[in-house]
Amino acid sequence: MGMLFDHGLDAATAIVMNAVLARMLQVGGGLPAILAIQISTVPFYFLTMEEYYIGMLNLPMFSGPDDASIAISFVCFFCAYMGSGEWWQEPVEVPFGINEYFGQPSTLKRSSFAIYFTYVVEVSAILGGSIIKYWKARNESHFKQRFTVNSFILHGGYMTFNILVYDIYGLLCGSDILHTHTRSVVFCFAG
């Protein structure tokens, strides 16, 4: 019961904390705002799933639920010093022509670039670390007892489906998704 209450509060805090981040960085209401919400909620879900299958929660060096809070605190102090307006809105060149490959402009607002970069690095690190941990635990009794292909696909597929639906919707709808469907996005990733 305590674990359920603790994880429930952590999930609610993660969604509120990242909504504040999106607002502070002035990323608007489109895909960057949705990714800002997902920065700690997606790793939170996959780490909880990892705990279910492996039997212990062994956090990596950088994890969404914990380190995102510290990073956001630093961003708060930085914005208090620099302001959250002009510096975050300046255009920056996207490296390696990634945006041009997808038919997008070659520059992004600094705030959007920071969100994209953080999201890709954090989610990739969490998923890569989880795959390694699942592989190492594959012969342990706890893992064998809990793991079935169907349950694993359903658990992993649930959040993957949510991510795909909301990210694609954020791309298609532009900057209006958080203004027109606030509850849908927040409830989806709040647990």
What would you say about this model in short?
The chain has 191 residues and is mostly helical. The chain has helices at 2-24, 31-54, 64-82, 86-89, 98-101, 110-137, 141-146, 149-173, 177-180, 182-189; strands at 91-93, 107-109. Helix content is 76%, strand content 3%.
Features:
single chain, mainly alpha, two-stranded antiparallel sheet, 10 helices, about 75% helix, globular
Could you describe the 3D structure shown?
- Strands 1-2 form a two-stranded antiparallel ribbon.
- It is mainly alpha-helical and 191 residues long.
- It has one domain (2-189).
- Helices cover 76% and strands 3% of the residues.
- It has helices spanning 2-24, 31-54, 64-82, 86-89, 98-101, 110-137, 141-146, 149-173, 177-180, 182-189; strands at 91-93, 107-109.
- The two termini are 16 Å apart.
- The protein is globular, with a radius of gyration of 18 Å.
- The protein contains 10 helices and 2 strands, in the order H-H-H-H-E-H-E-H-H-H-H-H.
- The mean pLDDT is 77.
